[in-house]
Specification:
about 10% helix; 12-stranded mixed β-sheet; single chain; outer membrane lipoprotein receptor (LolB), chain A; disordered N terminus; mainly beta; about 325 residues; Phosphorylase Kinase, domain 1; 2 domains; 6-stranded antiparallel β-sheet
Length: about 325
């Protein structure tokens, strides 16, 4: 649960890009965020809030040439940590004395756990969202432009973003459902610094993990099965009836906890919202938890199909994950 919360605890970041005029459209502001999201050195504290829950995190983001490294430390509980670079995502759990390492090769930007809630645009949103500049505000004593991203149908959530007028940095973000007065999720900086360079030691764990158990995900199975063999055995799966605007962004096989059989992982996006679909083989009857579940601000829907457990999950309304999961169907391998 803590790892899931950490992965959901997204930090919204952007950098100052010379030459941008102060008067910009919402699309330009969001485009500016997307272009600059990785290229700022900063360290700070932010609070991740969902109804009835609040968690505090310390974050360090270091850019040194082409190398980008992030470290997040949970200031509550046992002090779990996440460290991300271009190659891998490392989750450290001191309470369980365990480390989970996930390869990031081939992952898109949404694989970054700190940006999972950031509205990074990968297409034209006008058919599915309305973008509106709202009344300016102040956050942390800084003037902020406020942008509303409003869905045009019931398959998506909206956003409100408070962007630092001087630098373009999102100082606060809200994920908006049906109740605009009660956000599903809010991330707010309580302190932030933007040094010229963050020290390399700040993005390295200070914990002694030599005695911890290590699990490497997305590696090949112990039998070193060729991914093409997996396709031949399991066949491909497709979504036959996606909500309007959603398209397949990624398809891959993943090995979890050194299991022999991989699971299928699809990612669908409308250019803003993202839904992951997992197709798991060999799921025990006791683990076949079908139906709707909510994890923080994310919804998940699971059902059994052809002996496989299909789960769709994302920060979208329940209707969306249910429709996508139900539409998944196997396609015989050629």
């Amino acid at each position: 649960m803590l790892r899931q919360r950490l992965l959901q605890a997204c930090l919204l970041i952007a950098a100052c890009v010379p030459g941008w005029a102060q008067a910009q459209s919402p699309e330009e502001w969001l485009g500016r965020m997307g272009e600059a999201v990785e290229y700022l050195n900063y360290e700070g504290t932010f609070v991740y809030m969902t109804p009835g829950n609040a968690e505090t995190f310390k974050v360090y983001h270091r850019v040194d040439g082409d190398e980008v490294t992030e470290r997040i430390v949970a200031l509550d509980g046992a002090g779990a940590e996440i460290i991300r670079n271009a190659r891998e995502l490392i989750c450290i759990f001191p309470g369980r004395q365990s480390v989970v390492v996930e390869s990031r090769s081939g992952k898109g930007v949404k694989g970054n756990p700190l940006q999972s809630g950031l509205p990074l645009i990968s297409g034209d949103l006008n058919d599915y969202y309305e973008l509106v500049m709202q009344q300016a505000d102040r956050v942390l004593g800084r003037a902020a432009e406020v942008i509303a991203v409003r869905p045009r149908d019931g398959y998506r959530y909206g956003y409100r973003l408070w962007l630092d007028r001087e630098t373009g940095m999102p100082l606060k973000s809200q994920l908006i459902g049906d109740d605009v007065e009660m956000p599903l999720e809010e991330i707010r900086f309580t302190a932030i610094e933007l040094p010229a360079l963050v020290a390399s030691a700040a993005v390295q764990t200070q914990l002694d993990t030599s005695g911890y158990s290590w699990v490497r995900q997305n590696d090949q199975s112990p039998s070193h099965e060729n991914p093409q063999d997996s396709v031949s055995k399991m066949g491909r799966w497709v979504a036959e009836a996606l909500p309007a605007g959603f398209m397949l962004e990624m398809e891959e096989f993943e090995y979890i906890d050194q299991t022999v059989a991989p699971r299928i992982h699809h990612v669908y996006t409308d250019g803003l919202a993202t839904v992951s679909v997992f197709v798991d083989p060999g799921v025990a009857a006791s683990e076949q938890a079908e139906g709707l579940a909510m994890m923080g601000s994310a919804n998940a829907y699971s059902l059994m199909k052809d002996g496989m457990l299909v789960t769709a999950m994302g920060e979208v309304p329940p209707l969306t994950v249910e429709k996508i999961a139900a539409s998944m169907a196997p396609v015989a391998a050629e």
